[in-house]
Amino acid sequence: MLDFGLTGKNAIVCASSKGLGLGCAQALAKTGVNLVMCARGGELLEKVAAAIRSETGVTVKTVACDITSAQGREAVLAAAGHVDILVNNAGGPPPGDFRDWTRDDWIKALDANMLTAIELIKAVVDPMIDQRFGRIVNITSGSVKSPIPQLGLSNGARSGLTGFVGGIARQVARHNVTINGLLPGQFNTDRIEGLIDNTARQQNKSPEDVRAELEARNPSGRLGHIDEFGFACAFICSAQSGYLVGQNILVDGGSFNSNG
């Protein structure tokens, strides 16, 4: 039996009531990790948390909040106490034309997809160093390596986080604290449904046709499942992954054509 070495560890998984965050929470719980899950919608959050408790027996705390706000981060950190694993995640900004974006649009994107993760890292990294164990995973986007024109706000903010993390990951690795990025391609989530609908309107096509085109373009012939993404997160967080440092791992079905 494969042991990830995480039984009894404590994790914060942000934006985890659905989608990729939920996939990560489910996978970590299956390795024996206790969770603090957060999301804006409390009803759905508690529903999925109860299912995880029932299935795995781990302790799951929930905090209904906006993780991009200082108050939300304070509430999550207070609920967590001791943190071994941090999974940063936040919904991406909307698509559009950069000519239409104001300074406020950019600041909102940076707050959600760059500065929130940095603030949470700052809050947990020194205790992780002291205990000589820590795993930090930033869920960003495949657009970090292959920018998506209509997602310029996301491209900019998430690339900023990636550049920042690339520096500090090398500073803390000697303490068995790792920071890595997990870059999703197109998964079956609410986010992709929104992008499909937006593309369908722009191209005067049906959402079904747009989805079929996306699937056909992917080497795997399909979109991803959140449990596949969650397993990748659990692997990065495992006790045996201490030599994986400052990497940005694509989980995209081979969509990005590269040797590395």
Summary keywords:
single chain, 260 residues, alpha/beta, seven-stranded parallel sheet, 7 strands, 48% helix
Number of strands: 7
Task: Tell me the strand percentage band.
Answer: 5-15%
Approximate shape: globular
Name the structural class. alpha/beta
SSE order, one letter for each helix or strand: EHEHEHEHEHEHHHE
Report on the architecture of this protein.
There is one protein chain. Helix content is 48%, strand content 14%. It contains eight helices and seven strands, in the order E-H-E-H-E-H-E-H-E-H-E-H-H-H-E. The chain has a seven-stranded parallel sheet with strand order 3-2-1-4-5-6-7, sandwiched between helices.
In short:
The chain has 260 residues and is α/β, with parallel strands linked by helices.
Task: Compile the SSE list and pairings.
Elements: E1 10-13, H1 19-30, E2 34-39, H2 42-56, E3 60-64, H3 70-80, E4 85-88, H4 103-131, E5 134-139, H5 152-172, E6 177-184, H6 190-203, H7 207-217, H8 226-237, E7 248-251
Parallel strand pairs: 1-2, 1-4, 2-3, 4-5, 5-6, 6-7
Helix pairs in contact: 1-2, 1-8, 4-5, 6-7
